[in-house]
Design brief:
disordered N terminus, about 20% strand, about 650 residues, alpha+beta, 5-stranded mixed beta sheet, binds zinc ion
């Protein structure tokens, strides 16, 4: 199956090394030896995280019919996949599953008659799950589309689904369930071709306890009555990782003409306040990037255990309640999820190796939206923090995973590059904007979204398009070879932009001055500082700061009690790094308050790596893990394992 002889090195039509000096070539050669050992076997366009034989069968439409059972923590029912037959000589259909119990498989003809099919589940793989291998009965006509129906039940441990008991919700009276399908977890709640290379439309019938509401990444109607049976239709084709569902005591409030928010009633007022700019963001995004192709744009604010800041499920972004800071300071996450309506949902990475096309482009669009809606100072601050996070990532992520488009054929699809594909990708687009000018680059992007709407593309397709539409028509600015340095080399090129912010520079200067007694805390303009400036101040404290100074800082600035989740995260990482034990009780409270991986995982990592608290980190994890989503649990477990292995 992996018969394409291309390697990362050879996919480009232009020589990679054209613009690179000889010293760099020596370094690169050794690198490629490491990372392209099987270069004749590696196909960058192949999705190594899916078993599906998409060259023979290609799903067009998915029909779900599912009961949501909170008692058994399972979804039970059926899926019908309508598939185009690409190769009618193939009589084996392979789908992706993970921990799903299959009850029956049958092919359905036009008249609705079913022909049952034999099947087996292949060996389980931790990263890919198990292939469902179906033998297509001889009676099935493969000269046109086929429809296969699978009856199944999900496991209580399905990696995409979190089942929250009532006490872990804001209201405390009703249970809740929600999904997180990205990257390779849709297969844990629907047997299907789980690769971003395949786009499907879908419909669904979802049955729930009568008092609860179901919402999906589909046509949610804010006026839907609560009656326990909900029908959905998603007419725009989406990749499987954007299949999404949530069921709970959810209510709706409008934010604007085409925008609104779903959440538990206890969080509704705070959500309406925090995300009041959503309609304006949508309007600005349409002006900037082209038509919004998805109908409504709503938000769903979940309980604290939601593992991400946000998830760009189409028509309905899922959000962590940790964004409810009360001052709208963290809404760049909404700008980010909204921007995915163009980069990611509309133009989609073909494999997880190309995920910079989703995340890097989106991070750049996010910064452009924030600049229009807020101001350049705020965006400069966020750019500097992202840049510092990127430099930190370069210290942790292996060199061959620092390429924007790394070779990727094994391992864990969820945790490949830290956040390199976000921040290095954003910087790459910033570099193009700087080189070609904002107006020309905006025209390029606008056209890009139009030309690739509802398509999935590889990095190399993007590069060819970039070359044809921007590089070649404007010669002498940036060459393809220079662009490929971003794609296929670690770290950053020498001419990469370096973001700067006057307010953050000042905050760092004050951190240095205060730590040596040249400034008092009263001198800090805390009242005028953004949360970003406070974060930078904390990160700029010198490594040898004594415990008494840390205690003074915590007492006077209230850092351990900060209601801003990002400030608290930054502070508790420092607390753990520096073993500032007086703050440990509040650090543990933070670990129990949030379930977003970004907010807790690095704190466990810092404890495990400070030389003395590895056991404490394990104990704190054991006591908090019941509140976390499976994604967050895996993330922290890996972090603790890595820390133990590096000892
Ligand atoms: Zn994103």
């Amino acid at each position: 199956m992996m018969n394409n002889a291309n390697c990362v090195l050879r996919v480009s039509s232009k020589p990679l090394f054209a613009a690179i000096g000889t010293a760099t070539i020596a370094l690169l050669s050794s690198l490629f030896l490491i990372s392209c050992g099987d270069q004749d076997e590696y196909d960058p366009a192949h999705d190594y995280f899916s078993y599906a034989n998409t060259d023979a069968f290609l799903t067009q439409h998915v029909s779900l019919d599912l009961d949501v059972d909170f008692e058994s923590r399972s979804l039970r029912g059926s899926v019908v996949l309508r598939m185009q037959v690409k190769d009618d000589s193939v009589d084996t259909l392979i789908l992706d599953t993970r921990d799903i119990t299959i009850e029956s498989v049958a092919f359905i003809d036009e008249a609705g008659a079913a022909a049952s099919a034999s099947y087996e589940l292949g060996e389980h793989d931790d990263s890919k799950g198990s292939p469902l291998i179906i033998t297509v009965p001889e009676s099935v006509d493969r000269s046109s589309d086929v429809r296969v129906r699978i009856e199944y039940e999900t496991s209580p441990d399905a990696s995409a689904l979190q089942w929250l008991p009532a006490e872990l919700t804001a209201g405390g009276k009703h249970p809740m369930m929600f999904s997180q399908s990205q990257s390779v977890h849709a297969r844990s709640w629907v047997p299907l071709q789980d690769t971003p290379a395949v786009r499907v439309t879908y419909d669904a019938v979802i049955r729930t306890p009568r008092e609860l509401l179901a919402v999906m990444s589909a046509n949610n109607d804010p006026l839907t009555p609560r009656q326990g049976v909900y029908r959905f239709d998603m007419p725009q084709p989406i990749p499987s990782y954007l299949l999404a569902i949530a069921v709970g005591n959810l209510y709706f409030a409008p934010l604007g003409e085409d925008t609104g928010v779903y959440t538990e009633p206890e969080l509704l007022d705070a959500s309406v306040y925090e995300f009041a700019n959503t309609q304006e963001m949508l309007d600005v995004a349409v002006q900037q990037f082209g038509p919004y192709q998805w109908g409504r744009y709503d938000l769903l604010v979940l309980p604290p255990s939601f593992p991400f800041g946000g998830m760009e499920n189409p028509r309905l972004s899922f959000l962590t309640p940790s964004l409810l800071a009360g001052d709208r300071s963290l809404v760049s996450v909404v700008a980010h999820e909204l921007a995915h309506s163009w980069s990611g949902n509309l133009v989609t990475n073909a494999t997880w190796r190309d995920s910079w096309l989703n995340e890097g482009v989106t991070s750049y669009l996010e910064s452009r939206l924030m600049e229009i809606i807020y101001d350049k100072d705020r965006v400069d601050e966020e750019r500097v923090l992202s840049y510092e996070e990127l430099l930190g990532n370069f210290e942790d992520v292996p060199l061959e995973r620092q390429w924007l488009a790394p070779r990727l054929d094994s391992g864990d699809a969820d945790d490949v590059q830290g956040t390199i594909h976000y921040h290095k990708g954003q910087l790459f687009l910033q570099h193009l904007e700087n080189g070609f000018g904002r107006q020309r680059f905006d025209e390029f992007l606008f056209q890009y979204f139009e030309d690739f709407a509802f398509k999935t593309i590889t990095t190399e397709v993007f590069l060819d398009y970039l070359e044809d539409e921007l590089l070649d028509p404007n010669p002498g600015v940036i060459s393809r070879a220079q662009v490929e340095v971003w794609m296929y080399q670690p770290g950053l090129p020498d001419d990469a932009p370096i973001p700067s912010s006057t307010t953050l520079t000042h905050a760092a200067e004050l951190a240095a001055a205060w730590s040596v007694g040249e400034a008092s805390l009263d001198d800090l303009p805390v009242g005028q500082w953004s949360p970003q400036a406070m974060i930078h101040f904390i990160n700029s404290l010198p490594a040898d700061l004594c415990a008494a100074k840390l205690a003074q800082l915590d007492l006077e600035l209230g850092l351990s009690d900060s209601g801003n989740a990002e400030i608290a995260r930054t502070w508790f990482i420092q607390v753990a790094n520096r073993r500032f034990e007086p703050a440990y009780p509040k650090l543990e409270a933070h670990l129990n308050r949030y379930g977003r991986a970004r907010l807790v995982s690095p704190i466990y990592g810092a404890l495990a790596e400070n030389g003395q608290d590895a056991e404490l980190a394990k104990l704190m994890f054991a006591s908090a893990r019941g509140k976390y989503h499976p994604f967050t649990i895996n993330h922290i477990a890996r972090k603790l394992q890595n820390a133990a292995a590096s000892k």
